Amino acid sequence: MKPLIDESLHTSLVSVAHSAGHSADHVSHRGLGGLKDWQLMRVIREQEYTFVTNNRSDFLSLHGKKPLHAGVIVIVPNVVLLQQQELFTAALKHIGTRDLTNTVVEVRFVKDEIQCRNTNFRSLSSTCPYSPGIAESASKIRSFAPILRGQSEEYREPRHR
Fold first, then answer.
1. Is residue 77 reached through a cis peptide bond, with omega within 30 degrees of 0 on the bond before it?
2. Are strands 113-120 and 125-129 parallel, antiparallel or unpaired?
3. Domain locations in the chain?
4. Which of 139, 156, 152, 54 has its CA nearest to residue 97?
5. By 3-state DSSP, what share of the chain in percent is helix, strand and coil, each rounded to 5?
């Protein structure tokens, strides 16, 4: 996975991705700031980026128009820097080494947890609520037993503050 962080999110998320072992870029660092969404989408597709944004509706619409894409990570709602870092870290740990082709991962705060939800554009979905805290390992998150509910898969851990 090669994340491209949207200009609406803080540039420090590039370092979060690097710390997790991913080669990542920020729209501003690439000189892509101010492009129209459809122009940015062309770069995302050509360079096979997994796009990280909080602009859910516009980019899901654009991604849905093409048969294949390298995935989208949506951080909702628009939150302050430290919360962006916490949510993005949780999303990266949730994703692990999974292939995100045609997948949207939405990450948000839900009460005292962080919830990650995967949705495949071909309607395969799983839900994964948890809160890893920045220093915890991905293996700890993967060690939680899944709770199966229909086509959903949930993992829970309290949010660390």
1. yes
2. antiparallel
3. 3-154
4. 139
5. 30, 25, 45
CB count in 10 Å sphere of residue 143: 9
d(CA 63, CA 113): 28
For residue 127, give the DSSP letter: E
Joined tokens for residue 151? 């086509």
Which of 57-61, 68-72, 107-111, 120-124 is predicted least confidently? 120-124
Prediction pTM value: 0.75
Query: What whole-number distance in Å separates Cα of residue 78 and Cα of residue 9?
Result: 8
Residue with tokens 């870290």: 89
- The answer to whether 107 and 94 are in contact (CB under 8 A) is yes
- pLDDT, one tens digit per residue, over 86-119 is 999 999 999 998 888 888 888 999 888 999 888 7
